[in-house]
């Protein structure tokens, strides 16, 4: 956001990717995602995704200090509710085995719940892309919904790749399976397009609006994809499911 603001103030308008500050931000974002990537190999998606609230709270304070934004009462209340909700999500997240082999990933990929979910996601994404490209609708919700739809695929791929690498390091080689490379390509491609639409949102809207909305959309899409693809709530108690949804 700082990079975009500086470029706007310059007499000669340059593309954002010529800014060293922008690349610094992308690098820091990438380092953070490396931590996320590692975590997905050892814990359920429904536990890792909500912990992204740390970035929301952090961004709120960073915006105050570096972007000179005002911290409103509503922001403080929202932050408090977010932390409270995350505590419930983490407490009641499903406790499922995290050993995920290439064969299991292949079976999940061709299961009918995921195929139905994929078709619906593609249809919704195409509709949003039509409005974005043909109708020039660049509303924050349209942009961040596209990011969230891509993020659900990223999360599925990241967990598969991370888990297979973790198993391979422990001596159970999974990197010889073609599904590992398919998931790696899916992860890289969906990440690249996420950056494109997220960058567009950051360019047009305030960080204090983009970060929280993106967090809510991302968390919802990640949890849904975890439930559908990896069946993380398959054996969970009804009380745990209720308290998780309440959180």
TrEMBL record:
<feature type="transmembrane region" description="Helical">
    <location>
        <begin position="74"/>
        <end position="94"/>
    </location>
</feature>
<dbReference type="GO" id="GO:0015095">
    <property type="term" value="F:magnesium ion transmembrane transporter activity"/>
</dbReference>
<keyword id="KW-0812">Transmembrane</keyword>
<dbReference type="Pfam" id="PF05653">
    <property type="entry name" value="Mg_trans_NIPA"/>
</dbReference>
<feature type="transmembrane region" description="Helical">
    <location>
        <begin position="210"/>
        <end position="230"/>
    </location>
</feature>
<feature type="transmembrane region" description="Helical">
    <location>
        <begin position="21"/>
        <end position="42"/>
    </location>
</feature>
<feature type="transmembrane region" description="Helical">
    <location>
        <begin position="178"/>
        <end position="198"/>
    </location>
</feature>
<feature type="transmembrane region" description="Helical">
    <location>
        <begin position="48"/>
        <end position="67"/>
    </location>
</feature>
<keyword id="KW-1133">Transmembrane helix</keyword>
<dbReference type="InterPro" id="IPR037185">
    <property type="entry name" value="EmrE-like"/>
</dbReference>
<keyword id="KW-0472">Membrane</keyword>
<dbReference type="GO" id="GO:0016020">
    <property type="term" value="C:membrane"/>
</dbReference>
<protein>
    <submittedName>
        <fullName>NPAL2 protein</fullName>
    </submittedName>
</protein>
<feature type="transmembrane region" description="Helical">
    <location>
        <begin position="139"/>
        <end position="158"/>
    </location>
</feature>
<comment type="similarity">
    <text>Belongs to the NIPA family.</text>
</comment>
<feature type="transmembrane region" description="Helical">
    <location>
        <begin position="114"/>
        <end position="132"/>
    </location>
</feature>
<dbReference type="InterPro" id="IPR008521">
    <property type="entry name" value="Mg_trans_NIPA"/>
</dbReference>
């Amino acid at each position: 956001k700082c990079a975009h603001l500086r470029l706007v103030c310059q007499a000669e308008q340059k593309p954002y990717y010529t800014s060293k500050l922008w690349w610094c931000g992308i690098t820091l974002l990438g380092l953070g995602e490396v931590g996320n990537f590692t975590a997905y190999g050892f814990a359920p998606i429904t536990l890792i995704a909500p912990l992204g609230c740390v970035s929301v709270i952090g961004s709120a304070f960073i915006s105050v200090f570096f972007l000179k934004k005002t911290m409103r009462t509503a922001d403080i209340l929202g932050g408090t509710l977010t932390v409270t909700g995350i505590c419930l999500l983490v407490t009641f997240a499903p406790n499922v085995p995290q050993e995920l082999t290439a064969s299991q990933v292949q079976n999940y990929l061709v299961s009918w719940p995921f195929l139905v979910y994929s078709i619906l996601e593609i249809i919704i994404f195409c509709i949003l892309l039509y409005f974005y490209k043909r109708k020039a609708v660049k509303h924050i919700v349209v942009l961040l919904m596209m990011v969230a739809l891509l993020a659900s695929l990223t999360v599925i791929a990241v967990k598969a790749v991370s888990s297979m690498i973790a198993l391979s390091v422990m001596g159970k080689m999974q990197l010889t399976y073609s599904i590992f490379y398919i998931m790696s390509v899916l992860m890289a491609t969906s990440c690249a397009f996420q950056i494109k639409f997220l960058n567009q949102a950051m360019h047009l809207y305030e960080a204090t609006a983009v970060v929280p909305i993106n967090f809510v959309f991302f968390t919802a899409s990640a949890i849904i994809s975890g439930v559908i693809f990896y069946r993380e709530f398959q054996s969970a108690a009804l009380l745990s499911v209720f308290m998780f949804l309440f959180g």
